[in-house]
From TrEMBL, chain A:
Pfam families the UniProt entry points to: GatB_N, GatB_Yqey
InterPro entries referenced in this protein's UniProt entry, alphabetically: Asn/Gln-tRNA_amidoTrfase_suB/E (IPR017959), Asn/Gln-tRNA_Trfase_suB/E_cat (IPR006075), Asn/Gln_amidotransferase (IPR018027), Asn/Gln_tRNA_amidoTrase-B-like (IPR003789), GatB (IPR004413), GatB_C_1 (IPR042114), GatB_Yqey_C_2 (IPR023168), Gln_synth/guanido_kin_cat_dom (IPR014746)
A single GO cellular-component term on record: mitochondrion
Main location: mitochondrion
GO molecular-function term, one example from the UniProt record: ATP binding
GO BP terms, alphabetized: glutaminyl-tRNAGln biosynthesis via transamidation; mitochondrial translation
UniProt name for this protein: Glutamyl-tRNA(Gln) amidotransferase subunit B, mitochondrial
Protein source organism: Xiphophorus maculatus
Compartments it resides in: Mitochondrion
Subunit (UniProt): Heterotrimer of A, B and C subunits. Subunit of the heterotrimeric GatCAB amidotransferase (AdT) complex, composed of A (QRSL1), B (GATB) and C (GATC) subunits.
E.C. designation(s): 6.3.5.-
Chain's role: Allows the formation of correctly charged Gln-tRNA(Gln) through the transamidation of misacylated Glu-tRNA(Gln) in the mitochondria. The reaction takes place in the presence of glutamine and ATP through an activated gamma-phospho-Glu-tRNA(Gln). Allows the formation of correctly charged Asn-tRNA(Asn) or Gln-tRNA(Gln) through the transamidation of misacylated Asp-tRNA(Asn) or Glu-tRNA(Gln) in organisms which lack either or both of asparaginyl-tRNA or glutaminyl-tRNA synthetases. The reaction takes place in the presence of glutamine and ATP through an activated phospho-Asp-tRNA(Asn) or phospho-Glu-tRNA(Gln).
The reaction(s) this protein catalyses: L-glutamyl-tRNA(Gln) + L-glutamine + ATP + H2O = L-glutaminyl-tRNA(Gln) + L-glutamate + ADP + phosphate + H(+); L-aspartyl-tRNA(Asn) + L-glutamine + ATP + H2O = L-asparaginyl-tRNA(Asn) + L-glutamate + ADP + phosphate + 2 H(+)
TrEMBL record, chain B:
Reaction(s) catalysed by this chain's protein: L-glutamyl-tRNA(Gln) + L-glutamine + ATP + H2O = L-glutaminyl-tRNA(Gln) + L-glutamate + ADP + phosphate + H(+)
Family, similarity comment: Belongs to the GatC family.
Gene Ontology BP terms: glutaminyl-tRNAGln biosynthesis via transamidation; mitochondrial translation; regulation of translational fidelity
Name under which the protein is recorded: Glutamyl-tRNA(Gln) amidotransferase subunit C, mitochondrial
Pfam families linked: GatC
Organism: Xiphophorus maculatus
Protein encoded by which gene: GATC
Entry keyword annotation includes Protein biosynthesis: yes
Top EC class for this record: ligase
InterPro entries: Asp/Glu-ADT_sf_sub_c, GatC
Keyword Nucleotide-binding included in the entry's annotation: yes
UniProtKB/TrEMBL annotation, chain C:
Organism: Xiphophorus maculatus (Southern platyfish)
UniProt entry keywords in alphabetical sequence: ATP-binding, Ligase, Mitochondrion, Nucleotide-binding, Protein biosynthesis
Protein name from the UniProt record: Glutamyl-tRNA(Gln) amidotransferase subunit A, mitochondrial
Domain Amidase residues, every copy: 22-482
Record region (Disordered): 498-521
Main location: mitochondrion
């Protein structure tokens, strides 16, 4: 048999197989994405000249939160002395072999489940070869051919519309989640022209998530990554801190006219916050749009984001030379994941295996479910639920306050999203660093609810609590004499003073303009530093102006 | 047995890549051919079994021959730029014509695979493909051994391994040859 | 004493006929006397004496650890040994001292076995002659045997023959009686091939039965630590110690049964011996063919069912092996860059220049050649055409074995090598790749399919050199395979090397030797 005919036969065979590999759901979501791109920022108008729009896909590396590395029993720690957390395997000593960490598999499977992925019951590992000083083996173990999870969807939302108060909901397709090793770190010492190598990070488990190019701008990408971050944090599979490199995002950006084929893409790297992600993508979309409008061609290249200038700059490429020469990792038999104990083959202990049913049961409340629950339980507006969930710890704070007060949640949400969050943002603090603890705020709100202080006094008390952490609301009320003045004689005296000194306003009220009564009330509150019982004051003033 | 032998057409090994060893193999083949003429075999079969008689279950002549050159695809010629690319990817260096020939011979040898019909056959990574991978507990068992590791390295600074400056691609072939000339062992 | 089997020595210890330190000293002396064989890269004299003293103390206290306590053993220099340099016979690792023991080494040390040294090999186990290492070629002890000197017509010292390889040093160590047991590695026949050419018993266990942790890999998906001994029962004892799950090697499988003693009276009446017809390959010597036929007769006469079977893809196995081996080599060798360990070039204009010059200086032509072609097969444009194709052929080969064993065959009987050992001078006329393709032709299919296989020394050729035959069994049937091998061993009376002690002490009846030779023709 001549070799060429065999080759042709195999080719035919492969072609026949192709339709089986492509899932219908995959095709479906691609269609969604295309149509969505058309309506990315403005609704499409067939008559309008076709605008260039951005097409954004993401490649995300999430460091798995685990005690030990993906294939070795050395610890995962940040800020450890150089090379203090490196096993013989991590240093690629000859003869050492990878031994897979169950925790890392579970983390990837749980993440896959949370992102509605299909979990591959059997996945395999591959070697990806390239030489780099912080890659000791000369290859990275990854999952190129058959990753642990494929074909998922991430639903994310962001506040859009005129007043940025409308919750916009979108989908991005997750192509796959693969397990792979992190590399070490290179410190370039230009003075002594050398590179210092620290292998503490080498071999830490990563989940690589590939998000399909279903996004069109920085804002969408940022919202998708934020949602992913929340999901990972809720799952506990990744701490998700971008500035510490626990979550690394590379963006594939191109521009095209809707309906036309995708343009040449660039890969933007070196993005270390969500804010920069949005800026880098928007810059890149604009840059490419300008190139195309000039009649130029976008180059397929890797670009780095420079956060100082806000621009992306071309990085030196491997001159089209790179070829990763993938091959199966021969030291790791296939990774098997089972549905439940009943599906375990002989010789595999339940405690040693990864069981989908068990992991599904362990899935915590995910952000979208949280938001729905907040809306239903507390009657909050969707945008409030969005803020509560998207700010780290704010939902927990809110729910802790709710436990200590009987006030209307819709009143409490104002306190949390305005007073508390305002001060936190002003001082660049996270919720966990709030000087006012939820119980203290609840106590304050209770005092207000009980009629002990007015709402304006309550705000003063809150400010004081912020400045003097640990001081109870009641104590501050007493010290600052902010308690509600409800002594009728006192209030009569003060009201009389205001009425006497503003005869014009009194006349206006008497001539039927009831709105002016409120102004008088304000003047009384000013006299009492906001402590006067508004109900009583109103009664007295009505009486005095009638 | 006789039938099988009758169908044997012994051909002198024609695979060039086997080089002079072919002669050696061919010699053996020929000598065996001579010894196994059907008549002598027949007489052996008729003779009662003895310790000197050939066991009939063991084939008396080779049952296959090397793949003839004409059944193989055309030989691959490796262009110089591909060798250069390979050397840069693999970070090994040949520079000599001999190295290129060695590569071409290795490819030629591999080409014999293409006479095998593998349609419908799944590739096999490992003989353990049906076995579940062992998974380890997430507990720290190793790793605190910087001193032990660093003393294996020829060059260290404090607790770091040291590499020369990075992100500089390997120079072109000619320059490379000049550099490596100085690094003969 | 040196010519005894491990079992016999263990008994001699207990009976006080010899002590571990005495035996250790004898072996060390013999290593010195046989230095020209170049079997050892490193002799661990001090460490060996220390271990022997500890073993002796245990014996005196009546608490020996087991059958291996005090037994001198050798280890191929591609198994890591803590604080003992491990070179892989390469300049790349010539000063490399690993910080840990390979699991198999640790298990033997834990049993009280005494490490004599690290044995010579082909660089990174790439070769089939033990002629391509940075420490020079290994000489086959039979080169200096009476049988070869007189019958082979060897005239001068330059006529010495190779050991085969790549575990030639280990085979030479056992054949020349400087160790009772040696570890080799077997990727495509590297233990069985020198076992056959040096006239010793060699076992390649089922893939995964013995841990590879600490074995510097050649082809991870085929490598198996091999065992070389002077008798089948010795190998069974060693396998009993070495086999089983190692959590450091995810490709290990549970041992199907404990293994200590093999039954002395194993009956072959109920077994079926398959003769794969494709193992009469072009180039098989008539003497080897005659031995193959003779042993088939032995089985038949003893009442075993002997059947000709077919493994139709055998011819392509060596080609498949060639591609898979080169690709894994390309990958496995990537770690040797001089940064964390091993040889490091002085060139330092850039990381890549340092890497390239380190690899240029550290690897021999064979290694670099395999790296280059392996990378070629893995290039995106070639991956399907060569690598995946080879993987498909691999399945066909594995399936061939599956069908045969599924049809009721218990064990396959084949030659181990095409011929007896070649003279060094003749062997090196061919390049390493061509030689490997010839030498591994019968042995690598068992690695491709992960099956247990042994080489049993059968007889001496007209040149006075050993001829071995191979037995291949189904996966995890190592014990049964050893039983059959022992049955053969008991019947062929293979002579031990005649000059072991430069005395007549260990020589078997010379008449036996002659008888073997006549029957070989």
């Amino acid at each position: 048999m001549a070799a060429s005919s065999i080759a042709a036969r195999e080719l035919l065979h492969n072609i026949k197989l192709i339709p089986y590999y492509q899932k219908s759901s995959c095709l479906f979501s691609r269609r969604i994405s295309t149509s969505k791109l058309q309506c990315s920022s403005q609704p499409p108008e067939k008559s309008a000249p076709q605008q260039l729009v951005g097409v954004v896909g993401l490649e995300i590396h999430a460091q798995i939160s685990s005690n030990t590395k993906l294939f070795s029993g050395s610890s995962v720690q940040f800020l450890a002395p150089p090379n203090s957390s490196v096993s013989f395997f991590d240093a690629s000593l000859p003869g050492t072999l990878p031994v897979l960490n169950r925790r890392c598999v579970e983390a990837a499977v749980m993440t896959g489940l949370a992102l509605n992925c299909t979990i591959n019951k059997k996945s395999v590992f591959d070697r990806k070869h390239y030489f780099y000083a912080d890659l000791p083996a000369g290859y990275q173990i990854t999952q190129q051919r058959r990753p642990v999870a494929v074909d998922g969807v991430l639903t994310y939302s962001f506040l859009g519309g005129r007043k940025r108060s409308q919750v916009m909901r979108k989908n991005v397709h997750i192509k796959q989640i693969q397990l792979e090793q992190d590399s070490g770190k290179s410190l370039h010492d230009d003075v002594n022209s050398q590179t210092l190598i620290d292998l503490n990070r080498a071999g830490v488990g990563l989940m690589e998530l590939v998000m399909e190019p279903d996004m069109s701008c920085g804002e969408e990408a940022a919202a998708a990554v934020r949602e992913l971050q929340l999901i990972l944090q809720a799952l506990g599979t990744c701490q998700g801190n971008m500035s510490e490199g626990q979550l690394r995002v590379d963006a594939n950006v191109s521009v095209h006219r809707p309906g036309e084929p995708l343009g040449t893409r660039t890969e933007v790297k070196n993005i270390n916050s969500i804010r920069y992600l949005a800026r880098a993508i928007d810059f890149e979309v604009q840059r490419q749009t300008a190139v195309v409008r000039r009649g130029g061609a976008v180059l397929n290249e890797t670009r780095a984001y420079d956060s100082k200038s806000g621009e992306t700059v071309a990085m030196r490429d491997k001159e089209g030379l790179q070829d990763y020469r993938f091959m199966p990792e021969p030291n790791l038999p296939p990774l098997l994941v089972f549905e439940d104990e009943a599906s375990l083959p002989a010789g595999v202990e339940a405690g040693e295996a990864v069981l989908l049913r068990t992991l599904r049961a362990r899935l915590p409340e995910l952000p979208s479910v949280r938001r729905d629950r907040l809306v239903q339980t507390y009657g909050l507006l969707p945008e409030h639920s969005f803020t509560l969930v998207n700010e780290d710890g704010l939902m927990e704070y809110f729910e802790a306050v709710m436990k200590g007060t009987s006030r209307d949640p819709r009143k409490v949400i104002g306190w949390v999203t305005n007073e508390l969050l305002g001060l936190l943002k002003q001082q660049d603090l996270s919720v966990s660093h709030s000087p006012v603890l939820p119980a203290a705020l609840a106590e304050l709100l209770e005092l207000q609810e009980a009629g002990c202080i007015s709402s304006s006094a309550a705000k003063q008390v809150f400010q004081e609590m912020w400045r003097s952490p640990g001081k109870a609301a009641l104590q501050i009320i007493q010290e600052l004499d902010l308690g509600l003045v409800s002594d009728a004689a006192d209030l009569h005296r003060i009201c009389q003073k205001v009425v006497d000194s503003h005869p014009d306003k009194v006349r206006a009220v008497r001539s039927g303009n009831q709105k002016v009564l409120n102004k008088l009330m304000g003047l009384v509150q000013k006299e009492t530093k906001g402590r006067a019982d508004p109900v009583l004051v109103r009664e007295i003033l009505q009486e005095k102006t009638s | 047995m006789i039938k099988m032998l009758a169908f044997q057409t012994l051909r002198v090994v024609s695979l060039e890549i086997l080089g002079s060893s072919c002669n050696l193999l061919a010699n053996n083949v020929r000598s065996i051919t001579k010894r196994c003429s059907p008549r002598s075999l027949q007489s052996q079969i008729l003779r009662p079994l003895s310790s000197h008689q050939h066991n009939l279950k063991v084939p008396k002549v080779p049952t296959w021959e090397h793949v003839p050159e004409e059944e193989l695809p055309r030989p691959t010629k490796i262009p110089a730029d591909l060798v250069d690319r390979l050397e840069r990817l693999a970070l090994v260096d040949f520079r000599t014509q001999q190295g290129l020939e060695c590569l071409e011979k290795a490819i030629r040898f591999a080409d014999q695979l293409h006479v095998v019909d593998t349609s419908g056959v799944e590739p096999m990574d490992s003989v353990l493909e049906d076995r579940a991978l062992y998974l380890r507990d997430d507990t720290v068992t190793e790793g605190d051994c910087a001193e032990e590791l660093l003393k294996l390295a020829k060059n260290t600074v404090e607790e770091y391994f040291v590499a020369p400056p990075g992100n500089i691609p390997l120079p072109k072939r000619e320059e490379r040859a000049a550099i490596l000339r100085h690094s003969e062992f | 004493m040196l010519g005894l089997t491990l079992k016999e020595v263990s008994l001699a210890f207990r009976e006080g006929k010899i002590s571990p330190t005495e035996l250790c000293r004898k072996c060390l002396n013999r290593i010195k006397k046989t230095q020209r064989l170049n079997a050892y890269i490193t002799v661990t004299e001090e460490f060996a004496m220390k271990q022997a003293r500890q073993s002796e103390a245990r014996l005196l206290q009546g608490i020996p650890k087991g059958p291996l306590d005090g037994i001198p053993f050798a280890v191929k220099d591609n198994f890591c040994t803590a604080n003992i340099r491990t070179t892989c016979a390469s300049k790349m690792l010539k000063d490399y001292t690993p910080p840990y023991n390979a699991t198999v080494v640790q298990k033997l040390l834990d049993q009280g076995a005494v490490l004599m040294g690290k044995t010579n090999m082909d660089e990174f186990a790439m070769g089939a002659g033990s002629t391509d290492g940075a420490f020079g070629p290994v000489r086959n002890p039979w080169s200096y045997s009476d049988s070869y000197r007189t019958q082979g017509g060897a005239a001068s010292d330059s006529d010495w023959v190779i050991t085969g390889g790549s575990s030639g040093g280990s085979a030479a160590a056992v054949a020349s009686c400087t160790s009772y047991l040696a570890l080799g590695s077997d990727t495509g026949g590297s233990t069985r091939n020198p076992g056959a050419l040096c006239g010793v018993f060699a076992l390649k266990p089922t893939y995964g039965l013995v841990s590879r942790h600490g074995l510097i890999p050649l082809v991870n998906s085929m490598d198996v630590p091999g065992i070389i001994t002077r008798s089948v029962s010795d190998a069974a004892i060693a396998l009993g110690v070495l086999q089983g799950i190692d959590v450091r090697d995810s490709t290990t499988v549970p041992a199907p049964s404990a293994l200590a003693e093999l039954p002395e009276d194993f009956d072959v009446k109920n077994i079926c011996v398959g003769i794969p017809k494709e193992y009469h390959a072009p180039g098989l010597s008539e003497e080897t063919l005659a031995q193959w036929s003779r042993v088939a007769d032995l089985f038949e006469k003893a009442g075993a069912r002997v059947e000709q079977v077919s493994l139709p893809h055998t011819q392509y196995s060596i080609v498949c092996y060639h591609v898979l081996c080169h690709t894994e080599v390309a990958s496995n060798m990537a770690r040797f860059d001089g940064l964390e360990y091993g040889h490091r070039s002085e060139m330092k204009s850039s990381t890549e220049v340092m890497y390239a010059s380190t690899r240029h200086e550290g690897f021999n032509d064979v290694v670099r050649g395999r790296i280059l072609s392996g990378n070629y097969f893995l290039l995106k444009q070639n991956y399907q055409h060569y690598f995946v194709k080879a993987q498909k052929v691999r399945r066909l080969i594995a399936d061939d074995f599956r069908h045969v064993f599924g049809s009721g065959v218990d064990v396959l009987l084949t030659p181990t090598t095409l011929t007896d050992a070649a003279c060094y001078h003749d062997f090196t006329q061919e390049d390493n790749r061509t030689r490997s393709a010839q030498e591994d032709v019968f042995t690598q299919p068992a690695n491709i399919a992960g099956l247990p296989a042994v080489s049993v020394p059968i007889a001496l050729s007209r040149r006075g050199l050993p001829i071995g035959l191979q037995l291949i069994g189904p996966a995890l049937e190592d014990k049964k395979l050893l039983c059959v091998a022992q049955w053969v061993e008991q019947r062929v009376n293979f002579p031990s090397i005649s000059d072991c002690d430069n005395t007549q002490e260990s020589r078997k009846d010379p008449g036996v030797t002659r008888r073997e030779q006549t029957s070989a023709i």
